[in-house]
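S., here's the first fold you wanted:
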Amino acid sequence: MRTATTPWNRVSRRPLTDVLDELRTAHTLTFDEASPGIVVMSVNRPHRGNSQTVEMFGELAWAAATLRNAPLRALIITGAGGKAFCTGFDLDEVDVLTRMTVPEFTELIETAASVSTGLRGLPYPVIAAVSGPAAGGGLSLALAADIRIADQTASFSAGFVRIGLSIGELGTSWNLVRLIGHGRAAEMAFTGRTVRAPEASRIGLADRLTETTTALDAAIELAETIAENSDDSMRSTKNAFVRNLEINSFQSALEVDNRGQALAVQIPTTRRALADLQSEAR
């Protein structure tokens, strides 16, 4: 319940308790605060390989928009149950798609696409903790994160062609090429084959491969390390990465970087940190 002591508006950060209370009304997702400011969002259909549904697309888009103004230090995305990250669209709901009109289907894919843009646009780090398969739309979800951590059970598949679809879905083609290069992305897309955890780590599809713990435990540990740094500097860094992915000009990228640094040095915590460094150097 919002009170006079916890005001917020559309451009301010909402109290985290308010955000989590709202998000926990979801049917296909769960939300837990693993550490202060670190939230785990789980795709919650373990009985169906955490596969996606029309309802889930709507809830993911809503969650990404709601989390925009949450006072988080990091968001972790994973699959409930630990046996599957997300296996793509639930084939039991295919008949729902075939009954849709063109405007209805267009609205659905635009909603689904807003999940990728919404997660990429969050102003703090997003980590995908991948255990088990991340396939089809599940791969798209993992690619929307800034960092992917995998354990030995993880696998990745862009098997759209195997069911007559294109990889041009939910930003997968755009993200995959930038992560692993055109040739490797094309080979994955044209064959629809599954990439296992060791190969995913070797080619850069997984940024970290854990051998001694689960992907979720490793993601929480990484998020806690990230949270030790300044909140404002993390947000500025995230903004620079996201904006510069859209820029082809080096000069334009420098302007984004310079703007971020100029703003950063005005932040009191940054000024105190710089003063401390200066004192230590004397």
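And the second, which I think is the more interesting of the pair:
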Amino acid sequence: MTLNDYEVLLHLSHAEYKMMRRVDLAERILLTASGITRLLEGLERSGSSARRPVTPMLACRTPS
């Protein structure tokens, strides 16, 4: 897990309903839109994060 991975999970853990818009996450950890998408895809593969099916712009923290 990278520092950016940890930082995203930390922001999601503290967010209301454990979810945030991808653009807001990118802004908070200083990544581009494509950079946050790649990072979230890796977290999704590991089971640490998931996209909401109805609103793919949202990322949410999965229970672990």
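Why I say that: Helices lie at 3-14, 22-28, 33-46. The mean pLDDT is 85.

Talk tomorrow,
H.
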